[in-house]
Structures are given as structure tokens and as C-alpha cells.
Design brief:
Layout (H helix, E strand, L loop, with lengths): L1 H33 L4 H35 L4 H27 L12
Helix pairs in contact: 1-2, 2-3
Length: 116
């Protein structure tokens, strides 16, 4: 009976992974169609789109692992650990956007003339 349940769980997990891959492929194909791409441009765009979709998943997994390690280092458990990991993940997701907006923002005082 345990083997049957194990095989059932394995089968379900594999089918969900396939469903995600199919979803990502259809999303990328839809984006290519919106841009009216064809031929080599469509193939290149779809390949990059699928790679980006996979990269974001692995980046999230890496960030979660780092957040989990941070919680373990701080010896957090229960709700405190969950809260720490949630905030850490939000910070990790917001960091690239914050860095990009900070880099594009003008520096304070840079636009003003020389002081007299």
C-alpha cells in the first residue's frame, strides 16, 4: 500500500511539472504571437522566454533556501520563522527593482548649480 501511495504521489508531482512547462510554453507562444514574430525571430524569442521562466523559478528557489538558512542561523521556529522567510523573500524580490529604480533616479543635488 505504501508503494502505491508513493507512486501516486510521484506521478502527480511529475504531471504538475509537465503542466507548468506546457503553461510556460503557451504563455511564451502567446507573447510571440502578440509581437507578430515569425521564423528565426519567433524561435529565438520563445527560447529566451522559456529560459527566463526557468531562471526566475531557480532564482526564487535560491532566495528561499538563503532565507531558510538565515532563519536557521537565527534559530527561529514556528510563526517567527515563517514571518522571517516571508519578509526575506519579499526583500529578495524587491531588491532588483529597488536597485534599478535607485540607479535610474537622479542624485540629490546633482541637478542644482554650484553653491555660492
Amino acid at each position: 500500500m505504501k508503494h502505491l501511495l508513493t507512486l501516486l504521489a510521484l506521478g502527480l508531482s511529475l504531471s504538475f511539472g509537465t503542466a507548468y512547462a506546457a503553461d510556460a510554453a503557451s504563455t511564451c507562444a502567446d507573447k510571440a504571437a502578440e509581437k507578430k514574430l515569425a521564423g528565426a525571430a519567433k524561435a529565438s524569442f520563445t527560447k529566451k522566454c522559456l529560459a527566463d521562466a526557468g531562471a526566475s523559478d531557480s532564482a526564487n528557489a535560491d532566495a528561499k533556501a538563503a532565507c531558510e538558512k538565515s532563519a536557521a542561523d537565527k534559530k527561529l521556529a514556528g510563526a517567527a520563522k515563517a514571518s522571517h522567510v516571508k519578509k526575506c523573500m519579499a526583500d529578495a524580490a524587491g531588491a532588483p527593482a529597488a536597485a534599478a529604480s535607485a540607479a535610474s533616479a537622479p542624485k540629490a543635488g546633482a541637478a542644482s548649480g554650484p553653491k555660492k
